[in-house]
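Continuing from the previous page of notes. For each protein in this section, the sequence appears first, followed by its structure tokens. Read the first protein now.
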Amino acid sequence: MERIQKFLAHQGVASRRQVDAMLQAGRISVNGEVAKPGDQISGNEKISLDGKIIRISQVDLKPKLLMYHKPVGEVCTRADPEGRTDVFKNLPGLGSGRWVSIGRLDINTSGLLLFTNQGELANRLMHPSFEVEREYAVRVHGTVTADMIKQLELGIHLEDGLARFDQIIDGGGEGTNHWYHVILKEGRNREVRRLWEAVGVEVSRLTRVRYDQFNLPKWLKPGKHRFFEEDLISKLYQRLQLDYPEAQDNRRQGRGRKR
């Protein structure tokens, strides 16, 4: 038996944090009953998300990781009530499991997004305790002073708590075309834009150019993706203190057999 959050994350449904939010919202059911955080399951149950059956793989999914260059205008959700184009429509298909986004970008932000079929990997790369760096290229409209930069690096109280940039690098330019590169270690909703707005500066363009060790290459055009090699993914698992999944999970063999 295994906690439902861990099991579904392992199956590539979403990260543990995302699965927990789904459970809190009553979106997941097990054998027709609404599931709760912490429920124990074996994997033989009939599990549904938003009324749709989740196909359970009895073989561990081979870890996959890809980078996607998100264009402005796409949303990072599978079920947008306004029917806007979502990032998942441009991703390659998976034989089993599904793509889990590692963080999000708002509709007006472009740049690097990472996707994996392993919820645990996504969870580690998003969890605040691992302090994963995110770097953005920001074009601002308005005069930026040394005092503003100092304030942004020391911290500003936003409606959801204290926030700050770990580093601000002047990228050059003049007037309304002045660029900065900013680095921070969390991914709150619209955090980069809200920080600049808090000092009276408008962000006119925002692109994520790096997430952790992964840089957005200039040759990767908007709407395109690239896969990462197995060796790189294996080293990433090691650095994040995760066990790299074997080809076959023997613990799950024989489930459901009558004795």
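Done with the first. The second protein uses the same format. Note its length before scrolling.
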Amino acid sequence: MRFGPHLPNRRFFLEKVLARAKVNLTLHVKGKRADGFHEVETAMVPVELADTLEVSDAPEGVVEVFCPAPGVPEGEANLAHKAAVLFFAESGVSGGVRVTIDKRIPAGAGLGGGSSDAACVLNWLNVRYGRPFGPKRLEELSARLGSDVPFFVRGTPALATGRGEILTPLPDPPPRELVIVFPGVSSSTAEAYSRHTLALTSREKVHRLPLSESDPFADLEGMLANDLESAVIAAIPAVGRAKAVLVSAGAGGALMSGSGSSVFGLFTDGETAGKAVRQAVEADASWSVFRTRFFYRGGAPAR
């Protein structure tokens, strides 16, 4: 996410900021908690694919969120609206905000678009009003909005545990081209977890991220694992077809992201990634196909 200078004395401030998507390189479901959430262990990395938010000042007490994309709620039902209300309530700041979301990240795709939009608004407001919250406190507040929101507030690779709100920093993964396929059918997070059973995954060897090693991404393609994938594929066969297309096109590894339904493939060269885009587009006209890369705040490392 990008932020401009804080201009507390300016009467009106408008800025365009990016709310980036994420992919889950691993997702291990460890069990259901007493609070109804699932205990998870997941390695998440931001990617360059992003929504664009136009954020501006509004009169005191006014919070407005607009998003013309089909199927995305506007107003109080939008998570970005909830984020703004939370910020003003907890900070005691008198102010208002208008947000217009140019949606590029598909909803219900396992890419965290709604959570990223909410985190983007929280970060913007925190900068705009002189940072009343430190990084840790802002992450704690953001967890009230959703399990993924603290990850997007931080905006760097992390191993998320608990229900997803406890973050352990990870180094940047090695550069890869990513091709993401959204098969046109959204996957409900609640339904994905309800279909999943611990008995199913107990028969499988789950890849664990070796945090004790100096390079946890040494075998990037080999570490890909998602406990929810098989259950979602059974309910939404297009997820499996999309994965098969990416693998046949030369992906070094492919995986469903989060609770689905998007699938991403990892590629080491642009030519093969371009071939995968073409094959995915030809495979099904209802699919949305995105070519992107891992996002690095300091710029991409040398290949």
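What the second structure shows: Confidence is low (pLDDT under 50) at residues 1-10, 198-207. The first helix runs from residue 79 to 91. We return to this in next week's lecture.
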